[in-house]
């Protein structure tokens, strides 16, 4: 009788263990299924997919002022800097694919993260944002007549000719990583005075220039020797990253 009870107890434990493992695997499967499918695609891919998805949700996460200067057809504007942004996107249909973009890619990347946290099924991000879209000569709705650039290609050439070694930071006032890099660049400008000229170019004041040299996404940092571009990097650069870049001008 004692042996029978022991066997019964052992079988019950094994059964319970099997049930727990099955439940764990099932839960893991559900969790994996619930993960957001997010893809960063080029401007041409973005446009082609929108052509075959007439009911797609197109989300412009720039400021209302930027939106008015030109936007994708049928895009909905929700400013990611608006305190109510998270609440607004949480009310959207999470089963519907969302195509999101901003000016250069930084804000849209943050928007994608928020959508992943909220459980959106599928999110497509425009690589390089509106800047890449315009570089590709793709159409915008409500685009304003281009304003005269405050900084031209001639100004840029003069800046490069004035110094043998130049590091140029292409930035915008709305770009958060650009603002984070500003004090680092100011420090390095003093540190490398007389050796390397460290300059900043506001892309919103130099649209023709940035288009001609294919600046897509921000921030972009490029180094020049005798007027010739040696290397460029995109995205936030730490002080050490910039120091490593400057070493290439030695």
Distinctive features:
250 residues; alpha/beta; five-stranded parallel beta sheet; four-stranded mixed beta sheet; 10 helices; 9 strands; elongated
In short:
With 250 residues, the protein is α/β, with parallel strands linked by helices. Helix content is 45%, strand content 18%. The protein has helices at 2-34, 43-51, 64-68, 85-90, 106-118, 129-135, 153-161, 176-191, 207-212, 239-247; strands at residues 37-41, 57-60, 76-77, 98-101, 122-126, 165-171, 197-202, 220-225, 228-234.
Uncertain stretches of 5 or more adjacent residues: 26-33
What is the gyration radius calculated from CA atoms? Answer: 26 Å
Strands ordered across the widest β-sheet: 1-5-4-2-3
Largest sheet entry: 5 strands, parallel
Q: For this entry, what is the oligomeric state of its chains?
A: single chain
First and last CA, distance:
87 Å
Continuous helix count: 10
Strand share of the residues?
Answer: 15-25%
Number of strands: 9
Helix content: 40-55%
Mean pLDDT: 88
Shape type? elongated
Secondary-structure-derived class: alpha/beta
Q: H/E element string?
A: HEHEHEHEHEHHEHEHEEH
Explain what this protein looks like in three dimensions.
- Residues 26-33 have low confidence and may be disordered.
- Helices cover 45% and strands 18% of the residues.
- It starts with a helix and ends with a helix.
- The chain is an alpha/beta fold.
